[in-house]
Design goal:
The protein has about 200 residues and is mainly beta. The protein has a single domain, classed as Immunoglobulin-like, CATH 2.60.40.1260. The protein contains 1 helix and 17 strands.
C-alpha cells in the first residue's frame, strides 16, 4: 500500500505553469543497481520561466509488495498545452528480471487503459502519454506508449478509456495483470481512501 510515508522517497517538481510530480526512490534493494539517469523534459519556449526545480517534502507510501519492483516514477498532470493532451506518467522497473506488461492497467478511477505485450527490462523507465505528438514537441523525445488515440504510428497504443488527471486533485493506480494494485498516488484534493493508498494526499 502506498502512503505519504513511503513517498518521502519521492519529490514534487514544480516548474512554471506545468506540474510534474516525480518520485525519487528512498529504497533500492541491494540486489538492484541504481536506475539510469532520468530523461529530463526540455520544455518548448515558455515565457519568463527559469524552470528551476523546487523540491518539496512529499508524502509517503508503503507499497503492497515487499517492496514493489515496478513503480510509478513520475506523473505529469498540470501541463502547458490547452486541454492537456500531453498528460503523462513514467514507470520504472526495479526488479532484476524483465516484467511482461501485457494486461497491466493504469487508472484514475474514471478512465482505465491497458498495456499491450511489452517486455519491461530491469532498470528501464518508460513514458506513457495521452498524445504522443504533443508530448514529443514539448519533451523533445518520443514516449513509449500513448493512450488517447493513435497520433503517432511509431508509438505503441494502449486500449481502453483515457484517464484525465484533475489539476485540483485526483488518484492514479497501477494494476498488474491479476488486477492487484501495485502502486498508487493521490494528490491535492484526491480521494485518499482509494485502494493502495493511505495517509494524506501529496500537495506539490
Amino acid at each position: 500500500m502506498s502512503s505519504k510515508t513511503e513517498w518521502l522517497r519521492r519529490a514534487s517538481l514544480v516548474a512554471a505553469a506545468a506540474v510534474i510530480v516525480t518520485f525519487s526512490l528512498a529504497y533500492q534493494p541491494a540486489a538492484h543497481a541504481p536506475p539510469p539517469a532520468a530523461r529530463k523534459p526540455t520544455k518548448t519556449p515558455v515565457p519568463t520561466s527559469t524552470s528551476t526545480p523546487t523540491f518539496l517534502p512529499s508524502p509517503t507510501s508503503t507499497a503492497s509488495q515487499d517492496p514493489a519492483s515496478l513503480l510509478i516514477y513520475a506523473l505529469y498532470y498540470d501541463t502547458y498545452t490547452s486541454n492537456e493532451p500531453e498528460e503523462a506518467f513514467e514507470l520504472i522497473n526495479l526488479d532484476s528480471s524483465a516484467v511482461d506488461l501485457s494486461g497491466w492497467q493504469a487508472t484514475d478511477g474514471e478512465g482505465t487503459v491497458t498495456f499491450p505485450s511489452f517486455s519491461f527490462q530491469p532498470g528501464q523507465r518508460i513514458w506513457v502519454t495521452k498524445t504522443a505528438t504533443t508530448f514529443r514537441s514539448e519533451f523533445g523525445f518520443s514516449p513509449d506508449f500513448e493512450y488517447g488515440g493513435n497520433s503517432d504510428a511509431s508509438v505503441a497504443d494502449m486500449t481502453g478509456t483515457a484517464p484525465t488527471f484533475a489539476n485540483s486533485g485526483d488518484e492514479f493506480q497501477l494494476l498488474d495483470a491479476s488486477n492487484a494494485v501495485v502502486d498508487a498516488g493521490v494528490w491535492r484534493g484526491g480521494d485518499t481512501a482509494r485502494a493502495g493508498w493511505s495517509g494524506a494526499a501529496i500537495n506539490p
